[in-house]
Every structure is written in structure tokens, then in C-alpha cells.
Design a protein that fits this description.
- By secondary structure, this protein is α/β, with parallel strands linked by helices.
- The protein has one domain: 3-Layer(aba) Sandwich (Rossmann fold).
- It has nine helices and nine strands.
- A nine-stranded mixed beta sheet has the order 1-2-3-5-4-6-7-8-9, sandwiched between helices.
- Strand 1 and strand 2 form a beta hairpin.
- The longest helix is centred in the C-terminal third of the chain and has 19 residues.
- The chain is globular.
- The mean pLDDT is 98.
- The structure holds glutathione.
- The site of glutathione (GSH) has 13 residues, from helix 1.
- Glutathione binds next to helix 1.
């Protein structure tokens, strides 16, 4: 692991790092905010998954999460949205597929399957690295994200509830099998057989087996992607059908941007803290 920079922030420490990832076969960047409480004892870590076109820097710079994380005693971890630097055919032709658009799944189709293994990365490799290099508890992890990363948080928590003790999402792509972003990515990463897609769709997974805890989702009603790509109504229907405890809050006037995230980030940190810091 290589340290790019470390800065004091709200009494804690914000660092940017790089490492050679065995999941992706590339160098991956990530950011960690260590709250001041970690000087006394290991703290819970809350992992953020960003949306299309973002990097590990986006959340750190734009969400405004560090102040309250420092107060609550939560570590924050932000990772990149895909492998980079591979130059696979077609990986840089569009902003919603390939570089910056890994969808937090494990691809099964060539040439993506060898490198686009973001689910393995966020579920296994990154927590192992974080818990060996930082004062993070291995028994209290939270997962949240935005848009493509909201999809990533929901599906990975639903698939691995034993790894993630809390989960929430901002404007998630809630039903990717039914929208253009999901269809484009899944048909290439997972192949044309749609039966393989359902294992990476939050609505489908929730109907099979609800997540064993409450889920918080915030959605802006002026979000430019709401009708075409996000489908929170499908998530609510899946929750109703499966008995999932879901708090879906819809906010008039808010769009898809980090101004929306910044406006509700405190509620998400408190949601995770209420679970991860409970005795
Ligand atoms: N590049 C796209 C927008 C992509 C986009 O909105 N990405 C969202 C996630 S889906 C984001 O968080 N962008 C980074 C930002 O707002 O800082 C466009 O030009 O329309």
C-alpha cells in the first residue's frame, strides 16, 4: 500500500492511498478518514460506493461527511468505481460503461471477467486491507452509496448480509435489469442471458431474501435520472412483498447531485452509527 497524502481533518486523519489489487489486476486508489476515537480503540468502518464517472475522491470532496463522522467515531472508506488503465476494447467509449462504471459486480464475460471484479474487491479484498492497515473493527462494517453505488450498496449487502451490518443508499439504480444503464452494463459484463442478471438486482434479491436490518434510501424528486434509470417505486414494491424494513424518503426539489447527498448525509451517518455503534 502506498500513501499519496495524509491531512488532518476535524481532529481525524484523511488519507489517499494506492495498492495493487488482486481482484482487478490493477492499481486501485482509495481514501480513508480515520476519526479521532480510533486513537483509543478500533472503530466501525463505513464504506461509500460512488456513482458513474466518479473516483475515490468524489465522496471525500463533495459529500461533507467528515465532520459528523469525526463526532460519531465512524471511519469512512471510499473506493474507485472501476479498474483503470487497462485499455480494454470499448472500456472508454461511454461514460456509463467500462472505466468509471464497474457496477460493483463480478463480470463473467470476456474481456471484463479478468478485471471487472468490483464485488470481490469491495466485499473481500478492500475490507481485509483496511482492517490490517487501519484501526477498523472487522465485526462492524456499513455500506452505502449513490446511484450506481447505491445499487452496489444494496446488492452487495443483500448478497452478503453477514459482511455488512448496516446499509443505505442515495438515489440508487434500484432495479437495474429494467433500465438502460443496467441493461447496457449487465449485457456486457454478465452476458445476454438475463437469468444471470437477477443476482445483481436489488429488487430481485430483496424479493428472494430481505436484508436482516432496516434500509434507508433517500431520493430527490427533481432527479434528472429518476424516471428513466432509478425506479425507487420498484424497490418499495419489493420491500412490501418481502417484508423488508425500508425507509424510502422522497424529497421535493432535490436533483441527482452531491448537493442532494450533502443535504442528507448526516441522516445516513446516524442511521449507520445507530447500528454499528450499538453495544
Ligand atoms: N457524465 C454524466 C453525468 C454522470 C453523473 O451524473 N454521475 C453522477 C453519478 S451517476 C455523479 O455523482 N457525478 C459526479 C458529480 O456529480 O460530482 C453526464 O454528463 O450527464
Amino acid at each position: 500500500m502506498q500513501t499519496r497524502s495524509v491531512s488532518l481533518c476535524h481532529g481525524g486523519q484523511l488519507g489517499y492511498y494506492r495498492h495493487a489489487s488482486s481482484s482487478t489486476g490493477t492499481e486501485m486508489g482509495f481514501a480513508v478518514f480515520v476519526p479521532p476515537q480510533a486513537a483509543q480503540a478500533p472503530v466501525p468502518a463505513l464504506y461509500f460506493l460512488a456513482g458513474l464517472t466518479c473516483t475515490e475522491e468524489t465522496f471525500v470532496i463533495k459529500a461533507g461527511a467528515q465532520r459528523l463522522a469525526a463526532e460519531l467515531g465512524l471511519m469512512l472508506v471510499a473506493c474507485d468505481t472501476s479498474p483503470r488503465g487497462l485499455n480494454l476494447p470499448g472500456d472508454a467509449e461511454s461514460w456509463d460503461f467500462g472505466v468509471g462504471a464497474g457496477f460493483y459486480l463480478d463480470a463473467t464475460q470476456a474481456p471484463w471477467a479478468a478485471h471487472y471484479r468490483m464485488s470481490q474487491y469491495i466485499n473481500v479484498e478492500l475490507p481485509a486491507l483496511i482492517e490490517s492497515q487501519f484501526p477498523a473493527r472487522g465485526d462492524r462494517r456499513g455500506l452505502f452509496g449513490h446511484s450506481m453505488g447505491g445499487h452496489g450498496a444494496l446488492v452487495n449487502a443483500l448478497r452478503h448480509p453477514q459482511r455488512w451490518q448496516s446499509v443505505s443508499a442515495f438515489a440508487p439504480i434500484a432495479n437495474p435489469v429494467a433500465v438502460p444503464w443496467g441493461e447496457k452494463a449487465f449485457s456486457r459484463y454478465l452476458g445476454e442471458d438475463r437469468s444471470a442478471w437477477v443476482q445483481w438486482d436489488a429488487c430481485e434479491l430483496m424479493r428472494q431474501q430481505p436484508y436482516p436490518g432496516p434500509i434507508l434510501v433517500d431520493q430527490g424528486l427533481a432527479d434528472q435520472f429518476l424516471a428513466s434509470q432509478l425506479h425507487p417505486d420498484a424497490l418499495q414494491a419489493a420491500a412490501d412483498a418481502s417484508g423488508q424494513a425500508l425507509t424510502l424518503r422522497q424529497h421535493a426539489g432535490y436533483d441527482h447531485s452531491y448537493w442532494f447527498i450533502q443535504s442528507f448525509i448526516d441522516d445516513h451517518l446516524r442511521h449507520h452509527a445507530s447500528i454499528l455503534l450499538a453495544r
